[in-house]
Amino acid sequence: xxxxxxxxxxxxxxxxxxxxxxxxxxxxxxxxxxxxxxxxxxxxxxxxxxxxxxxxxxxxxxxxxxxxxxxxxxxxxxxxxxxxxxxxxxxxxxxxxxxxxxxxxxxxxxxxxxxxxxxxxxxxxxxxxxxxxxxxxxxxxxxxxxxxxxxxxxxxxxxxxxxxxxxxxxxxxxxxxxxxxxxxxxxxxxxxxxxxxxxxxxxxxxxxxxxxxxxxxxxxxxxxxxx
Length: 227
Fold this sequence. Notes:
Elements: E1 2-7, E2 13-19, E3 22-29, H1 35-49, E4 59-65, H2 69-86, E5 90-94, H3 95-100, E6 111-118, E7 123-132, E8 135-146, H4 147-157, E9 160-165, H5 168-171, E10 180-181, H6 189-201, H7 220-223
Parallel strand pairs: 1-4, 4-5, 6-9, 9-10
Antiparallel strand pairs: 1-2, 2-3, 6-7, 7-8
């Protein structure tokens, strides 16, 4: 199965093509402010270098949030269009799950995985998981809160924690010694693709009409009453 996966939830734009869970090619652009400009050329480049067309893709996958409201919308609309043109299925993966998949096959069940996505003003989106026999298990519902409240919540779990995400700058002086911080802050389209393959194999996929964003808080425009 060939998978086209994209990640647009942060300032990084990432595109990957996988054969099942094996990455064929991934390309990433750092510090992209306009995903609307960067995404399609990156997709075309990845397809060209792998000698593939959109019609060769069996499954489309994207990051559905939380994260950049604009980036998420662009990613979702792009994948929806591809699905409509090819009549192929798609999978939406949360950015927090995408972060957790950075540790696929690399962390034992002794550790919980805490995915943190920076939401500005010392706030974050949070997801808590563990891997059990290569299966990602969600320990707690996704939530949005201050970094301090999140860390208090995690301390009450009394579990070894492996932190992933882009909030490391807030954590160095705040976490317990039994915790580990991953230094790579990117989600990666490859992680989105692997997660999508696993979901597809248990029947967790959809058509474009059912693919929707995951928002854990209102956008700044909505909060200010301008959207």
